[in-house]
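Lab channel / #folding
Pinned by the channel admin:
"Please post every new chain as: sequence first, then the structure tokens as a reply. Keep commentary short and put observations after the output so the thread stays searchable."

First post following the new format, from NK:
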Amino acid sequence: VLLLTAEGTTQLSNALPEPIESLLFLAADPAHLLVGTEGPHIYRLVEGSPPQRLDNFEILPCREQWYTPWGGPPAVRSLARSGDWIYADIHVGSIMRSPDQGVCWEPVTPELHEDVHQVATAPLAPERVYANPAAAVYLSEDRGSSWHHRSNGLPQHYGRAIAVHPHDPDCLLATVSGGPGNNVDAKLFRSADAGLTWTHATAGFPATTRHNIDTFQLTFSADGNAWAAVEETLYKSTDRGHSWTATFCAPKPIIALT
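Reply from TO:
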């Protein structure tokens, strides 16, 4: 894990024992990150200190139920933060939450579909949590103690990416498709009312894509602009996802945006 700043590059860890799946930046001075891996495990990286595996995450009783459809090790697929609260999306195993930046952990309520592909928080609604699992979007207004299924109006329910506007917790973008694999007819949708209604985003954006628009391929930047990656093309929206413009073509498929 490397930290790049204006002053240069700092190596925070030579290597971790498992493949890295997700990162969450907590503080800058000293640099403080949480790293999610296969296993699944979470490590705390603090500049100047060795990596620390989070012990209380390791002893969660529900770990015995975590799995993958293909038989491989589960993973901490995504991480999200709201103040001191941390949310870890387990693929497959729902979402774990911590009220103290990763010291103590517990599962959210089992009302949430367990096959979560991304978790997201809303900066201006501290208790709100969004999830996009294999059954379309869910919303919690109480940090994951209860959930509301927000799938009405979505023609497909296999969810992947989700992003929340930094200045409006009701404005969100989400991708859905017909399932995993190829030729899945993936689509991008936008909502202005926290998922109560959805609109298919097609102005300047592909109506469907062959592959899933995956975890981390959809985001809002701090200025409120939206970004989405489809294969090698980066799309930008300056009007909350109403219309899109292709702004960059990478030499290879874009894997992640942040």
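NK: Residues 45 and 51 are 5 Å apart (CA to CA).
TO: also worth noting, The chain has a mean pLDDT of 96.
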